[in-house]
Amino acid sequence: MNAIDVNLNARIPTARLASFYFAYYAALGAFNPYWALYLKDRGQDVAAISILMSLWYGTRIFAPSAWSTLAARSAQPILWLRVGSVLTVASFAFFTVPQDFSGLFLVMCVFCFVYNAIMPQFESITLSHLVGRSERYGRIRAWGSIGFVAVVALFGGLLDHLPVTSLPWLMLPLFVTMAIASFFNDYGRPPVVATESESPSFVAKLRRPEVIAFFIVALLLQISFGPYYTFYSIYLDEHGYRTSALGIYWSIGVIVEILVFAFSAWIFRRWNAATVLLVSLIAASLRWAMVATWPDNAILMAFAQTLHALSFAAFFAASMQFLVLFFPGRQNGHAQGIYYGFSSGVGGVLGALLSGQAWKACGGESAFLLGSAAAAMAAVIAWIWIRPGRAWAAT
């Protein structure tokens, strides 16, 4: 009986995996929608906020890859997940103390580094339990989305009645829960220490045209999300929406995201990953164009948020399929780190900074139009190099 047969017969620890996703993304459900408002309330202007938020993405350039490499070379790789989770709690605790820009910059650097480092490793842990059953990934990952939407909705209501400066105190218990969950998880198969002999094979795969195209597409899509993750709540706030309404709009996006993850196995039985990827990019371009054009139309803004099902969730699920296809086995953890570093890292920094400059020069609408253009460019590249029908396309 080979390793895949053994893994197919093994019981998937769904509850333990789901608990970490739930806690990690619950904390992110407070960070993404409300952190820019927190920074604004601390006296930071648009330019300063874009710099501080770019650190969230900038640390993704090297933190995930560095952490995944350390884990891959360790005889006890799970230790790095737990260390990262505990350090996340310790660093975030400093936000409970008032900081000026320099203090916020320093604490953001440390916090973002350790928080961003752990999820790619945990993705690899999850996939190690799903060898031969990767279509089940969506239902486990959906618990992260459930945690996200629960906190978005809850905190939106709370911040209508509490000062935004209380946000760090509200978030700290979520990070503590995440750290506890890290001690109840481990890899699905015995850890294998990476060797130098694997490097040439890995580098050769990175140079394949379709792999390069995939990473560029992921980069451009993340750039398109720059205005959303950095300024969406401020954008709605300036158009007269209450904080509780912000929570509702963020919740809409994540609710439809949950549905996509829950039915991802069904989706990929009917359409291959290349088709899903292309449709998600077109949806992203349409979504940002709608946000830029009709910010005062509550119905159209709600519809734009439903496109999160495609522009984020479907794209992410398809990306996991491609990473398994391009980098199977022990190479997947390293590939996860590079994927997060290049797309969310470089793309996130460029998205935050470019959207900040666009906002400063021409207003919020121009920032979202920039995002629409980036997603459209990604769709063109995907059609040329990753279009459905290619012999290697994930099925």
What labels describe this entry?
mainly alpha, Growth Hormone, Chain: A, 395 residues
Descriptive notes:
The protein has 395 residues and is an all-alpha fold. The protein has one domain: Growth Hormone, Chain: A (Up-down Bundle). The chain has 18 helices and no strands. The longest helix has 32 residues, at 331-362. It is globular and about 50 Å long. 54% of the residues are buried.
Tally of DSSP helical segments? 18
First-residue to last-residue Cα separation: 25 Å
Say how many strands there are. 0
CATH superfamily: MFS general substrate transporter like domains
Mean of all residue-level pLDDT scores: 85
CATH architecture: Up-down Bundle
State the helicity in percent bands: over 70%
Rounded Rg: 20 Å
Q: Would you list the SSEs in sequence order as H and E?
A: HHHHHHHHHHHHHHHHHH
Number of domains: 1
At CATH level 3, the topology is Growth Hormone, Chain: A
What topology emerges from the helices and strands here?
Blueprint: H1 3-9, H2 14-41, H3 46-58, H4 63-72, H5 78-92, H6 101-128, H7 137-158, H8 167-182, H9 199-206, H10 209-224, H11 226-238, H12 243-262, H13 264-270, H14 273-293, H15 298-306, H16 308-326, H17 331-362, H18 364-385
Helix pairs in contact: 2-7, 2-8, 2-11, 3-6, 3-17, 4-5, 4-6, 4-17, 5-6, 5-8, 6-17, 7-12, 10-16, 10-17, 10-18, 11-17, 11-18, 12-15, 12-16, 14-15, 14-16, 14-18, 17-18
Describe the structure concisely.
The protein is mostly helical and 395 residues long. The chain is 77% helix and 0% strand. The model is unreliable at 1-6, 191-198 and 391-395 (pLDDT under 50).
